[in-house]
Amino acid sequence: MIMSNGERMIFLSSIFILVNAGQGQECTELIKNKEYSCSGRNLTCIPGSLPFSVASLDFSFNFLTSLHKRVFPVMLNLQLLDLTRCYIRQIEKDAFYNVKNLMTLILTGNPITYLAPECLNSLYKLQRLVLVDVRLESLQLQINNLTKLQDLKVGTNCIQSMTLPSFMSTFKDFSLLDLHANNISIIRMDHTAVLREIGRNMTLILSRNPLIHIEPGAFKDVILRELHLLAAFISFNAQKECHKALTGLTVDKLFVGRYRMDEKIKVSVPDYLEGLCSINFNEIYLVQKEWSDSEMHLFRCMVNATKITIKKAYMNSMKHIPFHRLKELYLSDTGLSVVPFISHIPSLEKLVMKSPFPITFTGVSDLPLLQYVDLSGNMLILHECCSILFPRTPNIQYLNLSQNSEITFVNEPFSALDLLEVLDFHHTKLVIVFYFGFFKHLRNLKYLDISYTRVHFNTLTFQDLHNLTVLKMAGNSFSGDKLSYFLQNLTSLEVLDISQCGIEKVSMRSFTGTQKLRHLYLSRNKLMVLDFLTQPELTHLTSVYIDKNSITTIPLDVLQKLPMNLSEFDLSSNSIDCSCSQTDFILWIIQKQNILKQLENIRCKTFSANTDFKAIDFDIDYCVHKKRLTIVLSVICVTFVVVLAILLYKFWFYVQYCFILFSGYRSPGQQECSYDAFVIFSSYDEAWVMNELMENLENGVPPIQLCLHMRDFQAGKSIASNIIDEGIMGSRKIIVVVSQHFIDSSWCRFEFELAQSRFLMERNANIIIIILEDVAERKTKKVFGLHKHLKKNTYLKWSRDPLSNMRFWIRLRKAIVAT
After folding, report:
1. Residue 171: HSE in the Cβ half-sphere, 13 Å Cα cutoff
2. In sequence order, which residues have a C-beta less than 8 Å from that of residue 494 and are 6 or more positions away?
3. CB 321 within 8 Å of CB 301
4. Residue 513 and which of 31, 72, 430, 658 are 20 to 30 A apart at CA?
5. How far is CA 130 from CA 79, 105, 141, 342, 800, in A?
6. What is the pLDDT of residue 480?
7. Which of 447, 453, 368 shows the shortest CA–CA distance to 407?
8. Within 10 A of 609 (CB to CB), how many other CB atoms are there?
């Protein structure tokens, strides 16, 4: 085939795009050399960079249109391979040969049109096969070598028959068949033949299938661990008949009804659940979205159940039902306004009821095996609790009445419930009429939650609770030092939560007797100091939560005495003082990052919330240097005081000149000057100054008056004073004669430095440089500012050439005369 240039370019571009897509982004290493995720990287091939030792590979949401033998590199350690939604259309024979030790293969969401015979048969060790939403039409897969298969998930396909291949009856570990959301409408005797031969407990999921008919006896002698039939029938009549056809089925857990998100439906067949009487089950899970004007008798076929869970049901009452073996009853959002009368169920061990609407509870009685009662979240109002509500029910160990409206207690409310181990009232208003003896008789209590109950702790004590290990009192309030006697009898306490109680201080005697305390929660209080953590009774603490308090610092002596076993310490959301006075505390935070929780929220307090920064980012080295600098500066200050007088005497002219500059200085334009120019030169260059410079300037027209130190300085006056008064301050301009002798003269360098200070004050070019002889550039750097001045300003250079000589004097005179 001949391709045009345009077609050739399109073809090459496509190849380029695919190659780039195949490269994709690098895979993420989750566990070194073991677990990798390449999900959603636009890859078209398995990266060759993956190590041979990889055991888990997530390659979902990429592009593998066809699987063949060369797709996978040799990865004999690979156990889990996820190829979800990789646009796979064809799977060739031996496609998985290089990964034949797979134990889990996930092919969900691939539009597979061709599945080669025995393409999966090389996976001898496969235990979990997921073929959800792959356009599968039959369970007749050639997987006879997959003898270790445990789970087969083929939901959301087009399967019409649940008939398994006959060889699967020998799969001794097979325990899950998920057929949800397929197209199964009829189940006959021969369809379940393999299930019957398997003869062991397994889970069968048939939810969301349009079941119309089940042949009676189809499930006879079939034993299942779980059977899911949620939203699995095309009509209520079909559901009723299909349930009846399940006669002979034995199942441990039965899931029927609809999904919780489904809409409620009015039914004209109120007895559509009567077919359940034909099924032998132990536990039933029912989500009922149906309602009827007639009574539906939900529990009629559940009399032999050991566990009943009803959710989203439309029940007005629960009449007397002769349950024979019922141990656990869960009622959630059932529409009941009263906790049902269950005193006729002597086998009952566990009762859980939750309702989004207010309900009434008048009590239950004569339930000798009842151990677990959860009536939380029902907006209950109990005018008297709790023994009076449970007469002749002595074995209750768990009682949860949390998240209700209000509960009132009178004298010794738990007198007949002395086996209670767990008592939970959190977020329920408690009204205690008699505080004395409130917890009496609860010698076996291990867990007590009275958080956010608005209890007044002025007189409440925890006497007799010697076995209590967990105490939660968060969200209440304490006045004064109440902890010191609250906790004195709790010798077995391991967990204490007193968060958000408005506590400002904890005394050193508060935890006397709590030597077993392991976990302490003090969040959202007003604590400023933590010295109580050094108590000997708290040496076994492993976790402390003091977040959201007013802690700014912890002294070094407290830090050194903190419990040695601390593994969790929460200091977050406190305004930490990050100053150099707290370096020990900050250093402790930096060193203890392994035990500090929410480290990113341990922040330094600043004047602006927008400038807060993490405590671990504080610069400790700055404080160390600052401390050293303080010591050095102290020594320097002492030394400075001692030598200051000597320095002032020796460099008095500096002081004098500074005094002139900063107090009485006036520029030449503001004062009368005695000289036109002060000449700075070396005495070795005096001959040139006298014969050339003075002769040409002072005897010229107009005459220019020069200040020369050997002629014009006042006798008896210090040299420094003469330089300042007569030379620099008494002259409009300053002429600097640069030569090798000038560079070597300390007086010349000093005079030039003073001249520069005048230049800085006036910000104009009053210094005129004359280069008398060439000086090496490196030598000009010996005089402070000279090299820089020569680089930035125009200077004059002396020459013996007559023509150059004439230009020299013209330019010099012009520079001096200029204002």
Report:
1. 30
2. 469, 470, 516, 517, 518, 519
3. no
4. 430
5. 14, 6, 13, 44, 104
6. 64
7. 453
8. 8
Q: Residue 223 is which amino acid? A: I
> Pseudo-torsion of CA 678, 683, 684, 689, nearest 10°?
30
Q: How far is CA 690 from CA 83, 444, 694, in A?
A: 101, 117, 5
3-class secondary structure, 693: helix
CA–CA distance, 3 with 6 (Å, rounded to integer): 8
CA-to-CA distance for 769 and 790, rounded, in angstroms? 8
Look at residue 203 and give its three-state secondary structure. Answer: strand
Phi, psi of 392 (to 5 degrees): 55, 35
pLDDT digits (tens, 9 = 90+) for 751-810: 888 888 776 666 565 889 999 988 888 888 888 788 888 888 888 998 888 888 889 988
Tokens of 169: 């009856």
Token pair in block for residue 226: 């779980």
Q: 447 to each of 258, 316, 487, how far by Cα in Å?
A: 37, 35, 14
Contact between 69 and 97 (Cβ < 8 Å): yes
Amino acid code (one letter) for 230? L
Single-letter amino acid code for the residue at 605: K
Q: Is the dihedral of CA 570, 572, 575, 576 positive or negative?
A: positive
3-state secondary structure 130-183: ECCCCCCCCCCCCCCCCCCCCEEECCCCCCCCCCCCHHHHHCCCCCEEECCCCC
Q: Are 475 and 498 in contact (CB under 8 A)?
A: no
Tokens 């539009």, located at residue: 111
Q: Distance (Å, rounded) from C-alpha 433 to C-alpha 647? A: 87
178 burial type by CB count under 10 A (0-12 exposed, 13-18 middle, 19+ buried) = buried
Taking a C-beta distance cutoff of 8 angstroms, is the pair 421, 398 a contact? yes
Three-state SS for 679?
A: strand
Q: CA distances (Å), 483 to each of 102, 223, 462, 500, 517, in order?
A: 59, 59, 11, 14, 14
3-state secondary structure of 582: helix
State both tokens at 736: 């600097």
**At 309, which amino acid appears?**
T
Judging by beta carbons within 10 Å of its beta carbon (0-12, 13-18, 19+), is residue 276 exposed, middle or buried? buried
Q: How many residues does the chain have?
A: 819
Q: 325 - beta bridge partners? A: none
pLDDT on residue 455: 83
C-alpha 808/C-alpha 811 separation (Å) is 5
- CA pair distance 165, 141, nearest whole angstrom: 7
Q: Work out whether strand 290-291 and strand 28-31 pair parallel, antiparallel, or are unpaired.
A: unpaired
Q: For tokens 């409206």, name the residue.
A: 405
Token representation of residue 8: 């050739």
Residue 86, C-beta contacts closer than 8 angstroms, at least 6 positions apart: 59, 60, 61, 62, 63, 64, 110
Helices (H), 488-601: 556-560, 583-591
Give all strands (DSSP E) within 467-582, no chain letters.
470-472, 495-497, 519-521, 543-545, 568-570, 575-576
How many Cα atoms within 13 Å fall on the side-chain side of residue 740? 4
Q: Strand 767-771's sheet: what is its strand order?
A: 706-707, 675-680, 731-738, 767-771, 796-797
Rounded Cα distance between 775 and 795, Å, is: 14
Neighbours of 604 (CB within 10 A): 20
Give which of 375, 372, 294 is closest to 340, Cα–Cα: 375
**pLDDT score of 424:** 97
State the Cα–Cα distance between residues 677 and 707, nearest whole angstrom. Answer: 6
DSSP conformation letters of 356-383? SS--B-------TT--EEE-TTS--EEE
